[in-house]
């Protein structure tokens, strides 16, 4: 038997009223794999991440995480919709970084990173602070740990947000257009951090991105979404070098032309 | 800064009260009116505490409670906002005894006014919670917090700042509606004034003092709320746009 993927979308659908955002999505992500999701806006790519983070419900299909169903649980040998406790247990394996950072404005950088370890994991303050300090060091912000989000640049805020997510020791990290809200000169520092955690940690990573250069160099696999479906997927060399699908070609031409 | 203007107004009001209390024609009324004012302050402070507790409870119940609790919260808010405070006072004081429930006038006053202002406050609290950006909820969910943890640690501390100015209004509203308790036999500031006025017909000095005393109480509240606002905003908006 082959190893279960870290994440499996099995016939997952998402609709808003009559509008179908995702149509029977099937996608497996292996342990430690780095997958980039690209595509025009409105193609459902952000929804893919948000469903996995339980920020959006799904209308059909099953989500699997680390070999277990997330949206369902087995009861008397049958799969029934998951209860809150089951969802929380599975969700503990997932961390997410948002386009708009979403740091807690009333807490310092360090406070942001120790909040959930203390309240959710029940970690002692001292241990949480030590780990947070290490993580802030890794994202290059040990000098800013007592600063509040309002005192940090966008790039610095996003790096704190990455440290905050990592403090919960997730197995899977989701990056939702994490550089889209940044001034161009700040994009590099955030990508640098993502590169580093990709190398240092055995994390499974899913990222929605418009940074084609980064997707090409960083990911193991690239998925091109179009109108709620995976239109084409494969290693970056294929998607960017020799796309098979006409839609993919059009999209990449348009993006690369825009620079 | 407005706080200076407010402080100057309060100082002027208090000075006027002190000066008048040494004038013939005024000073005989001062001890009685101060007694009344003290009762007014007591009812207002206790009523305000009750109002805050009720507002938080009702708002959270309406937003996140199980269905029966939600209905209860809606019923409470609508009943106490939708009927006059005077009718509520009369109900608790004159109608409930008909059903065998007797309460003293003072607890009735605190209860009625606290519940009345609490019903308005519940909508203030609810609005402030809703005004916290959605991203804060999503980030807390991504960190696997429970609803209770999110509210306590992330949402309410931020909502608190937005609540303070409207609460200032409600507290002043509360002080003014304490004058209704004179109708259920309590000797508050308004009651004392009317009593003295009927006995002496010295309308000008009596109601001048009463006006100044109410103003002093309200200004004190406004100034306290300004300080609380500044303090709370500092906790949330570090380094933002300052």
How would you describe the overall organization of this protein?
The complex is a heterodimer of chains A (259) and B (242). Chain A is of the alpha/beta class and 259 residues long. Chain A has a domain of 67 residues. A six-stranded mixed β-sheet of chain A has the order 8-9-10-3-11-12, sandwiched between helices. In chain A, β6 and β7 form a beta hairpin. In chain A, α3 packs across α4, α3 runs parallel beside α5 and α4 packs across α5. Chain A is globular, with a radius of gyration of 19 Å. Chain B is mostly helical and 242 residues long. In chain B, 35% of the residues are buried. The mean pLDDT of chain B is 93. Chain B is 80% helix and 0% strand. Chain B has a single domain, classed as MetI-like fold (Orthogonal Bundle), CATH 1.10.3720. At the A-B interface, β8, α3 and α5 of A face α6 and α7 of B.
Compact description:
The complex is a heterodimer of chains A (259) and B (242). Chain A has 259 residues and is of the alpha/beta class.
Can you give the helix content of chain B as a percent range? over 70%
Oligomer: heterodimer
Per DSSP, the total helix count of chain A is: 9
Count of beta strands of chain A: 12
CATH architecture assignment name of chain B: Orthogonal Bundle
When the domains of chain B are counted, the total is 1
Q: Give the mean pLDDT of chain A.
A: 93
Number of helices of chain B: 9
Instruction: Write the element-wise H/E pattern of chain B from the N-terminal end onward.
Output: HHHHHHHHH
Which range does the strand content of chain B fall in?
A: under 5%
CATH superfamily of chain B: MetI-like
Flag low-confidence runs of chain B: none
Kindly list the characteristics that best describe this protein.
heterodimer; A: alpha/beta; six-stranded mixed beta sheet; four-stranded antiparallel beta sheet; 9 helices; 12 strands; 37% helix; globular; B: 242 residues; mainly alpha; MetI-like fold; 80% helix; 0% strand; flat; ArtM/GltK/GlnP/TcyL/YhdX-like (chain B); Ectoine_EhuC (chain B); AA_ABC_transptr_permease_3TM (chain B); membrane (chain B)
């Amino acid at each position: 038997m082959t190893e279960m993927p870290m994440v499996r979308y099995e016939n997952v659908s998402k609709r808003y009223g009559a509008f179908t955002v995702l149509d029977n999505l099937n996608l497996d992500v292996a342990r430690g794999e780095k997958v980039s999701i690209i595509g025009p806006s409105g193609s459902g790519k952000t929804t893919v991440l948000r469903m996995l983070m339980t920020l959006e419900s799904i209308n059909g299909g099953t989500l699997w995480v680390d070999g277990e169903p997330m949206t369902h649980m087995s009861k008397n040998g049958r799969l029934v919709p998951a209860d809150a406790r089951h969802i929380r247990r599975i969700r503990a394996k997932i961390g997410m970084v948002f386009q708009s950072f979403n740091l807690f404005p009333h807490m310092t950088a360090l406070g942001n990173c120790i909040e959930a370890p203390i309240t959710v994991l029940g970690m002692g303050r001292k241990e949480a602070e030590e780990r947070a300090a290490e993580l802030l060091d890794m994202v290059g912000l040990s000098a800013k740990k007592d600063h509040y989000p309002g005192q940090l640049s966008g790039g610095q805020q996003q790096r704190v947000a990455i440290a905050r997510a990592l403090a919960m020791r997730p197995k899977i990290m989701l990056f939702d257009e994490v550089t889209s809200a940044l001034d161009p000169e700040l994009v590099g520092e955030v990508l640098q951090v993502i590169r580093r955690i990709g190398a240092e940690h055995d994390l499974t990573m899913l990222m929605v991105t418009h940074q084609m250069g980064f997707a090409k160099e960083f990911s193991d696999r690239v998925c091109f979404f179009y109108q709620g479906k995976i239109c084409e997927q494969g290693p970056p060399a294929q998607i960017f070098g020799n796309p098979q699908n006409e839609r993919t070609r059009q999209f990449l031409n348009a993006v690369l032309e825009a620079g | 800064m407005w706080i200076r203007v407010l402080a100057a107004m309060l100082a002027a009001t208090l000075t006027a009260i002190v000066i008048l209390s040494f004038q013939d024609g005024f000073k005989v009324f001062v001890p009685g009116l101060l007694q009344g004012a003290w009762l007014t302050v007591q009812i207002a402070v206790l009523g305000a505490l009750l109002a805050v507790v009720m507002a938080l409870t009702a708002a959270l119940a309406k937003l996140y409670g199980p269905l029966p609790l939600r209905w209860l919260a809606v019923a409470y808010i609508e009943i106490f906002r939708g009927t006059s405070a005077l009718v509520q006072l009369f109900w608790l004081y004159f109608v409930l005894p008909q059903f065998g429930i007797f309460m003293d006038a003072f607890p009735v006053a605190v209860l009625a006014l606290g519940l009345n202002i609490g019903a308005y406050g519940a909508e203030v609290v609810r609005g402030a919670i809703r005004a916290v950006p959605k991203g804060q909820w999503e980030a807390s969910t991504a960190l696997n917090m429970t609803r209770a943890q999110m509210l306590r640690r992330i949402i309410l501390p931020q909502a608190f700042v937005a609540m303070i100015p409207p609460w200032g209004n409600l507290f002043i509203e509360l002080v003014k509606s304490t004058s209704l308790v004179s109708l259920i036999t309590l000797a508050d500031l308004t009651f004392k004034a009317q009593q003295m006025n009927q006995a002496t017909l010295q309308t000008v000095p009596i109601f001048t003092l009463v006006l100044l005393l109410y103003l002093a109480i309200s200004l004190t509240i406004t100034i306290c709320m300004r300080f609380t606002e500044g303090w709370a905003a500092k906790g949330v908006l570090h380094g933002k746009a300052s």
